[in-house]
Specification:
This protein has about 190 residues and is an alpha+beta fold. It contains four helices and ten strands, in the order αβαβαβββαβββββ. The chain has a four-stranded mixed beta sheet, with helices on one face. Strands 5-8-7-6 form a four-stranded mixed beta sheet, covered by helices on one side.
Length: about 190
């Protein structure tokens, strides 16, 4: 029988999973947390974290319409309370969402109940840009039906794409982007040009 070999990355991944802070919340999440992998590039953005008033309401947009998967849910840690300046009297939970390819979620959502949440009114300080493959008209209609503030469907170039800009139910600005397939042309001899 052959000798088993493991890379340093594989060993570190197993150790990270075993030491995962999600283990503290045993039984509190909807599914096992996804494996944690070390980044291959530096810097590497792991995820954004949105403050939401109601996770189930946010899931109707991000899971049911856009298509993210809910990887895990748990009570938010005191670390997140400190980072986000959440008052002690607030009740908090956190959810991790991914496109199915994420290792610890592409997006985190921290639900805060029991205190009034600020809403971005005016110049938006950030925007989440998500590439999608689905029909833009359908997404547009679903977002409107859910109550999101939808600007419209834009046809843009460089790269050639369609985008929907909207504000979700918690005031977060989002752009859904669908890239057009690159057009192939010929050089007169029938050879394709990119």
């Amino acid at each position: 029988m052959g000798k088993l070999t493991f890379s340093v990355r594989q060993i570190l991944t197993v150790l990270a999973i075993m030491a995962s802070p999600m283990a503290v919340f045993a039984g509190a999440h909807t599914s096992a947390p996804p494996p944690v992998m070390l980044a291959d590039v530096d810097p590497y953005v792991h995820r954004s974290n949105f403050i939401v008033a109601d996770l189930e309401r946010a899931f109707r947009v991000y899971r049911d319409i856009i298509g993210f998967k809910v990887d895990a849910m748990a009570p938010a840690s005191t670390f997140m309370d400190d980072v986000l300046n959440i008052p002690a009297e607030a009740d908090t939970r956190i959810a991790f969402l991914s496109s199915g390819e994420g290792e610890f979620g592409n997006i985190a959502m921290t639900e805060i109940k029991g205190v009034e949440l600020p809403r971005d009114n005016g110049i938006h300080s950030s925007v989440l840009i998500v590439e999608v493959q689905r029909d833009m008209e359908t997404l547009f209609e679903q977002l409107k039906a859910e109550g999101c503030e939808v600007d419209g469907i834009y046809e843009l170039s460089r790269p050639s794409r369609r985008e929907i800009a909207f504000t979700d139910l918690d005031g977060h600005r989002v752009i859904l982007m669908k890239l057009h397939a690159p057009e192939r042309s010929t050089d007169g001899n029938g050879a394709g040009l990119e």
